[in-house]
C-alpha cells in the first residue's frame, strides 16, 4: 500500500544479521540512481521515538512487563511514522527503515507471548495505514547472529576501554533467538507479495546485489525533494 509517490522498504531479522551495513550499501546505490533516500531505524528515528528507545533497550521498562514494552514500541512507532516516515513518502522519497512492525509481531507477539489481537490493535494504531511496500527479511542461524553481536560488543569494548554491553534483547537465550528466526520466516511465507527473504550468511557483496535486485524494480519513477538522512 503506497503512501504518496514514495517507496517504503523495511529490513527485518534477528540480531547480528548485518541489516545496517546493507541499508547503507542500498542507500548509496539508490542515490547513485538519482533517488531521494531517507534511512532510519526503530525503535527511534524521530526525537520522541529516540527518547523511548533508551527506555526500551536499557531494559528500564522490562520490569513493567512485555505488555508495557509493546505499548512503548507502538508509541515510538506512531511518532516515527507521523513525524518522519509519512512526510518523506508524501514527498516521494525512498524510505529505508531498520526494523518496523514485524519486529513487534515477532519479539513482543511470538517470543513475548502477547495475544495476536493485542499486537494487531497496537500495530493498526501505530502504523496508521503506512504499511511497507517491501520488507526484506535477513535470515541467519541465531547462533551465528549472536556470535557476530558478541564480537561487535567486544570490539567496542576494546576501542572504548569499556565493558562489553549487550542490550536487553541481545541477552536472551539462543532458543528464543531461534524462535524469532522461525517467526520472521513464517511472516515472510504468509505475505510473499511484501516479504523477500535473503540469506544473511552470504558474502556482503552478494547480499547487496540480492537486495538491490529486489528493490530496483519497485523504485518510484521520479525523485522527490532534497536528499535527507535521519540521525542514527
Ligand atoms: P538495535 O540496537 O537497534 O539493533 P538491531 O541491530 O538488532 O536492529 O536494537 C533493537 C532491538 O529492539 C532489537 O533487539 C529488536 C528489538 N525490537 C523489538 O523488540 N520490538 C520492536 O518493535 C522493534 C522495532 C525492535
Walk me through the structure.
With 232 residues, this protein is α/β, with parallel strands linked by helices. The protein has one domain: Rossmann fold. Helix content is 52%, strand content 12%. The protein has 8 helices and 5 strands, in the order βαβααβααβααβα. The chain has helices spanning 19-32, 47-57, 66-90, 101-110, 116-127, 142-160, 174-190, 204-215, and strands at 7-13, 37-41, 94-98, 134-139, 195-199. Strands 2-3-1-4-5 form a 5-stranded parallel beta sheet, with helices on both faces. Helix 1 (19-32) packs across helix 8 (204-215), helix 2 packs antiparallel against helix 3 and helix 4 (101-110) crosses helix 7 (174-190). The two termini are 26 Å apart. The protein binds thymidine-5'-diphosphate. Thymidine-5'-diphosphate binds at residues 15, 41-43, 57, 73, 98-99, 103-104, 107-108, 167, 169.
Structural class estimated from helices and strands: alpha/beta
- State the major sheet: 5 strands, parallel
Categorize the overall geometry.
globular
State the total count of DSSP E strands: 5
Mean pLDDT: 92
Beta content comes to 5-15%
